[in-house]
Amino acid sequence: MARYVGPVCRLCRREGMKLFLKGERCYGEKCAIERRNVPPGQHGKGRKAKLQGYGLQLREKQRVKRMYGVLERQFRRYFKEADRRKGITGETLLQLLESRLDNVVYRLGFATSRSQARQLVRHGHFLVNGRRADIPSFSLRAGDQVSVKAKSVKNASIQYAMEEVKGRGIPEWLELDVDERAGRYTAVPTKEQLNLPVQEQLIVELYSK
User: Which one, of 102, 95, 107, lies nearest residue 171 by Cα?
Assistant: First the structure.
């Protein structure tokens, strides 16, 4: 399966905002946005052209793709599914991305980043409703429970992540039982609850051409 293996800090710099791709580094002084908030490359400082139309739409799509770690073909499938369902297409698209198993593992604090959550899921460290789930893109439904497998409770990466993120809390559409190392996807989040710095309507306009 194709995946991005290059430096992730340059992705944040290209989008001009924190995408939280590198765990705890994103919250400290070593964050690339804090140290050097200019686009990557030798001509980064000279890129001052104001984006309009297609450029704005493309950047918004790239921003969301990189935030959730999804490549173009898969992202397009998510859009088609969102467009097929009833409701506001842009909001439904974000809800589909938020319901991914790797994203929920990250949101619950079992991993410091979505990329780490994706790796932990692939290695079979989590259960969904008591059954092993090792597909990062597995789509959760309201009421589904995500728990750390008994043999993985002492996994160093999971323990470290829970210790590092415990002070930040979790989104209101999730519930977490720290002692049981389990969480629940209680409801599909609304656009207001997500509170993401993206303009999803631009993505809808891009794919609707």
Answer: 107
